[in-house]
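Hey,
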Amino acid sequence: MNRPYFFYGTLRHLPLLEAVLGHEVVATPAWLADHALYWVKDRSFPILIEEPGTRAEGILVTACSESDVARMDFFEGGFGFSGRVMEVMRHDGAVEALVFHPEACAHHCERGGVWMFEQWQQQFGAEFVAMAKDYLAQFGLKPPRAVAARFEQILARGASRVRAGQAAATTLRHHAASGDVTVAALREPYARFFAMEEIDVSFRRFDGSMSPQVTRAGFIACDAVTVLPYDPLRDRVLVVDQFRAGPYLRGDPQPWQIEAIAGRIDPGEGPEAAARREAVEEAGLALTDLLPVASYYPTPGCSAEYLYSFVALTDLPDAVAGVFGVEGEAEDIRGHLISFDRLMALVGSGEISNAPTILTAFWLAQNRERLRGG
């Protein structure tokens, strides 16, 4: 029997459901009596809880093909959600429908506050729709749990895709149009916290023809922020000192780096909010005024990473320097208070050797007189 499906959580968002299924969907309003929705604590999706006297709003989809069911099972199955036949209400009466029920999550997920669909749409809706493209690209290639284990990384990439859609104007560079890039194959040979992707691709040449098919690989890192706290009264900055794998793997005998505060933009978070959060985590600083320096690809030839760099005007008394970091992420970060002149000397000597900090230091040098005057 081809039962209808009832969607109450993220898949209630029709653009997401259509992205998962790969086609347009016709749905009608429905609800599940004596059930309520709560956020899974510190996550971006809800959990269904049995609660007398309440109702969980959702949508009912009546025509689901075998392919639809397989794609839904892949999308939900990795999180321990499985279809359960339940009585669902609609305006013309009750109907039996399959409901993805949190079998595993019900036992180990901590409940947060009441989940509001409209709030989720505003904060996460576009990111989830963008994420679905990358998530479903693994359908038939990897087991559901292996993909679900990287859900937060895939969602953060979806958020990066949303921001990438707001690209700057094209006044000099080639203005890309539909068909200017064609991908014949996509492979993901490595995927953990970061990922590597390999594509067989052709692109439009400047003479109007398409290039031969070539293979290109890229390091998939999500959008991130850097922020350099600057005290214009004391004319000094706070920089952080930490071990970095990149210099070590290059063979650098001094792999500790002097940097601006930095970190990934989490799903549902904007660049400024991420900068403020990272300042608390890495330096114990509560920032207010953030001045944008630049947004840019640090290494576009081989990496998808995109950075938003800021200078923060803030008070930096002697006591703010210390050792910080998120313990669960094995961070061990030491803050240094240094004068502006020392900052520029370190850039000049090469001891500061990472692009975001150098770029930000030069921006500060250009704007320092104005900031101190203000």
